[in-house]
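sry for the spam today, last one i promise. struct tokens for design, 381 residues
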């Protein structure tokens, strides 16, 4: 069990007090003060106690156990494959109330499954102040999802269910009356059927959605575009989205508050960029088009967009050449501060062209790993 505050390792049994009488000498201890006494006197020290000491504290006495629960607001536990190893920490978590607990992370680095009875008990607790719940990298099945949804999470704002291989049946369980503002579903098995279930959730406050690495496809984009959540940040990276239908479908999304869009790792090409340029996202500030197989002429339509609030643009690891740079510097992005062109073969002419841009607020220009090409007589678009 890890408490997400700066850690200060304290003795688990006692702290000895003493006083110096002369330089280099130390008087014999006058008294021994237990760690319990110290923590009762200075409760803010509790979040700084290391995890092994905290587990011991929970088993020490009822008064100290109450003290721990009253002052801890963030807990992180890494779940072991062996369910027997899960029991001590998870049981200490579910046995009793945590009135100040706002962040709970129960992750696994190896895709372990929860011990069923413990997960049932976890979901049956009343987490009235819990705002952020991270259950990523597990193997939650439909039954576990049903238990999760039936739990009491009145203050839940952020839910992380990444890397679960959740499909249609499990996603259908998510139709809960939560006040979610952020949902992370990275690395699951969400396709058009699951997306159809997902968009039926009535989350009127959902602002951030991560759907990267799900192999969504064009049909799922058409379904997503119909949703009316007040999205501000949308991550669709590495989803096998192609230029023909995926981008035109996505561009139909009516999200006037959208400020960040991640499309990294998708083969969108020039038709995809042309479709994106028609989208009505007037408040877009951040756009990630890295590793999107963009070539020289593919930036023509991108540069015709009018995104007055765009401050961050990532075009790294594409195939942008000098011609692309000539088009790029004419773009009307007055607020642009950060531009990444790393990993593109723009050549000396392209680098020179970048110098003559109109971005007065530029602060960070990434030109690392640029592979120079020899200048040629003409530039291919």
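last one done:
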């Amino acid at each position: 069990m890890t408490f997400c505050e700066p850690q200060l390792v304290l003795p688990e049994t006692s702290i000895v007090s003493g006083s110096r009488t002369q330089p280099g000498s130390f008087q014999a201890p006058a008294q021994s003060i237990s760690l319990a006494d110290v923590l009762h006197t200075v409760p803010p020290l509790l979040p700084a106690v290391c995890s092994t000491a905290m587990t011991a504290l929970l088993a020490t006495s009822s008064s100290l156990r109450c003290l721990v629960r009253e002052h801890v607001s963030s807990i992180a536990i890494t779940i072991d494959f062996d369910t027997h190893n899960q029991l001590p920490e998870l049981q200490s978590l579910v046995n009793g109330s945590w009135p100040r607990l706002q962040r709970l992370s129960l992750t696994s680095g190896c895709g372990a499954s929860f011990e069923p009875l413990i997960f049932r008990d976890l979901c049956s607790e009343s987490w009235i102040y819990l705002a952020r719940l991270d259950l990523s990298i597990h193997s939650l099945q439909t039954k576990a999802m049903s238990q999760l949804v039936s739990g009491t999470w009145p203050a839940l704002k952020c839910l992380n269910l990444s890397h679960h291989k959740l499909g249609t049946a499990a996603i259908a369980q998510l139709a809960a009356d939560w006040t979610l503002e952020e949902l992370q579903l990275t690395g699951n098995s969400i396709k058009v059927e699951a997306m159809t279930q997902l968009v039926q959730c009535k989350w009127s406050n959902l602002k951030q959605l991560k759907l990267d690495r799900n192999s969504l496809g064009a049909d799922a984009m058409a379904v997503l575009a119909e949703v009316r959540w007040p999205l501000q940040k949308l991550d669709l990276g590495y989803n096998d989205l192609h230029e023909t239908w995926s981008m035109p479908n996505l561009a139909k999304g009516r999200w006037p508050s959208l400020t960040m869009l991640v499309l990294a790792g998708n083969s969108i090409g020039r038709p995809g960029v042309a479709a994106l340029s028609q989208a009505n996202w007037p408040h877009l500030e951040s756009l990630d088009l890295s590793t999107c197989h963009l070539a020289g002429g593919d930036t023509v339509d991108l540069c015709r967009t009018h995104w007055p609030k765009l401050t961050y643009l990532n075009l790294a690891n594409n195939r942008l050449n000098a011609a692309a740079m000539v088009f790029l510097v004419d773009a009307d992005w007055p607020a642009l501060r950060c531009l990444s062109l790393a990993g593109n073969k723009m050549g000396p002419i392209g680098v020179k062209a970048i110098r003559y841009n109109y971005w007065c607020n530029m602060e960070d220009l990434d030109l690392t790993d640029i592979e120079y090409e020899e200048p040629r007589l003409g530039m291919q678009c």
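The chain has 14 helices and 14 strands. ok im logging off now
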